[in-house]
Amino acid sequence: MAKSPAHKIGQLIGHMLEEIFEPLLREVSTKTDTYLDKTNIDRPSRTSKTLMHIDDQGNNHGLDFVYERFGDDNNEGLPIGFIECAWRRYTKHSKNKVQEIHSAIESLAMKHKSYSPFKGAILSGHYSEPSLQQLKSQGYTIIHIPYETVIEAYEYAGFDIAYDSETVLEDLLYKGISIDGLSETDINKIRSYIFKACHIGIYDFIHTLIGSLTKQIELINITPVIEQSYNFTEPLETLKWLTSSNNIHNRSINLIDLEITYSNKSKTRYERIETDSAKERIAFHQRLSEFKIEDRKVLIKSLDNLKQDTQIKINRSGKKVGQLSFSL
């Protein structure tokens, strides 16, 4: 069945959203020494242009952006960040889209939970507050660009893309052709307007993203697991035994629980592992977080230009917007 013109417009706006944010996401990748994989690009390490990852159940999930540690064009790295982009014209469809995003990212985040991956969504259009809160409550970082802001951004570039259920077929086709034919200059104007209008949300998103990609080990907690068990019939005898330091310290340690806390407060936990395995995993996490602390501080500080107020008003009549600098 052929897709309706309205559905096609939605797809084009969604793809444009990826193009608008890609330069900023790629700059973050460069500055954090990570590899940014993206759908619809040629990458020698995969056979398809579509960016796909497989979860523990063998299910394929298409994604928009994935950050990798130790990856390059020819070798897949460790996935440490997942980001989805989506447009929704009507609020009634937002809950289904949120559930779709959650289903794809969550299963992959669970598979790679030892990396404590970043989970993000860049959403534009109409989304109900409960649907946004659903993602936030489950650890997702979100940029939400309201429907009106998207329409105004295209108007600023000289295009009318507003549509609803009453828009006639001819107008829908024309709007779709217009979006599909945007020049680089047009895209830059749209990007500039959206970045100015949503600069606080973008700043928060990028700040959290960088904090995740450059997280440092803050605390390592080791809890011995004692394999030997003891039986008591008297409570007082039990309490006396528990308070004896000799009983606690003289027993051999066979297994341990290991928990690593990072600077962004994410945690990785391993239960009942041998000490040799714990040593290997600590060394691995140290390598995973070897981004220099000094560089991280400089990078976080450079985000200040994302939230600067250029004192330029945005409105539909004036259609003038300041050009924010997003160089990190």
Automatic annotation (TrEMBL):
It comes from the Bacteria. It comes from Pseudoalteromonas marina. This is Uncharacterized protein.
